[in-house]
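Fold Annotation — chain and its backbone

Encoding — discrete vocabulary of local shapes
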Amino acid sequence: DGRVYRVVTIGTQTWLGENLKYETPSAGSSICYDNNDNNCETYGRLYNFEAAEVACPSGWHLASDEEWKTLERFLGIPESELDDLGGRGTDEGAELVNGIFKAEKGGAQSTGGNFTALNVRANFWTSTSDPENNTEVFYRRVDDVGDIFRTTAPKTLKICVRCLKN
């Protein structure tokens, strides 16, 4: 997309240091929150899962659930909590929002088309499908209050993307 993105190294991983802003070619597969271009500039685009899988630039990829766990382990989430669903850890979410990762709280667009949670939480796709329900994918939900949530969502939800270097 011709943009230059900030890059951060956390532990052994190199991540984009901001939410992806690439407009995918397939109409409607990525959008700006509230259909407002200014929100894309500030928070990045919202992608359905199909678009998220192909949105990262060459040399980068959509991080898997395991790769997110590597980041979370480095941040201090106990090994015993990494595979849990729901909120895990104590203040690691705040570290992602306020620390070097700078997780922009870009919200989401529900499968029904409603926009929600702008400036409230950051949501990021993983590349890992739920083994118990192939219509859902693992994602991370963080805010600046505490936990990092590991949960699943339908592939039609639109949320942000952070790419991980190959």
Remarks:
- The two ends are 19 Å apart (CA to CA).
- The longest helix spans residues 65-75.
- The chain has a mean pLDDT of 95.
- The chain has four helices and twelve strands.
